[in-house]
Amino acid sequence: MGSFMTYPRPDGGTARGYLAKASVADAPGIVVIQEWWGLQGQITGLCDRLARSGYDALAPDLFHGTVVPYHDAAQAAKAMNSLDFLAATDQDVRGAAQFFAAQGKKVGLTGFCMGGAITLLGAVRIPEVAAAVIFYGLPPANVANPADVRVPLQAHFANQDGWCTPAAVDAFEAALTAAGRSCELYRYDADHAFVNQQRPEVYDATAADLAWERSLAFWQRHLA
Question: What CATH number does the domain containing 118 carry?
Fold first, then answer.
């Protein structure tokens, strides 16, 4: 449904991403952030799915063409650790948000795993973002203080997650509460990356479908 395109970054450069467009001209826009595997078909497929649900969706290619096979976690970790998260947020991700905002669209931000961490960064740092949905990823609190979240937030986490652990989620929730910030926070008896249909060893259809329904309801409330 979608296709790859280029768009301007705030610094005057250009970024590449996958854009899927809804069938209506005035659809809100959602920026979708990849996992540490790169811009895999699972992420472009989610953009297509959002387009069918009535949203324009743009996934920035944060690894600039590098896509890591699912079996190669070491290479994925290397790619993620080579990424400047703040620069990616302020340039590639904000540029995608500005692409939609320039068209007069309300802008949402969502991401998965590594992309979930960047989503929280964007909820703090990107003024064009109106609402954000996190999937099983968080940055360190000293990089994105939960007290600095500016927008309505929804978050989905897995109870059997060895990366974005339940303890990390507890600390995040406590920090939000202490700062007086609200968040629709959901936990699922599932593994990390339970939304990724291309990874049958972790995919959980029941949890994924429920999280998707909750996120669509959230977008309807905050982007319509």
Answer: 3.40.50.1820
Give me Rg for the CA atoms of the chain.
Answer: 16
In the chain the beta strands, taken as DSSP E runs, fall at 3-8, 14-20, 29-33, 56-60, 107-112, 131-135, 153-160, 184-191
Look up the pTM and report it: 0.98
Q: Which helix (H) or strand (E) holds 125?
A: helix 114-125
DSSP string for residues in 44-100: HHHHHHHHHTT-EEEEE-TTTT----TT-HHHHHHHHHTS-HHHHIIIIIHHHHHHH
Total domain count, the chain: 1
How far apart are the C-alpha atoms of 147 and 177, rounded to whole Å? Answer: 9
**Which range marks the domain in which residue 137 is found?**
3-223
pLDDT tens for each residue of 156-195? 999 999 999 999 999 999 999 999 998 999 999 999 999 9
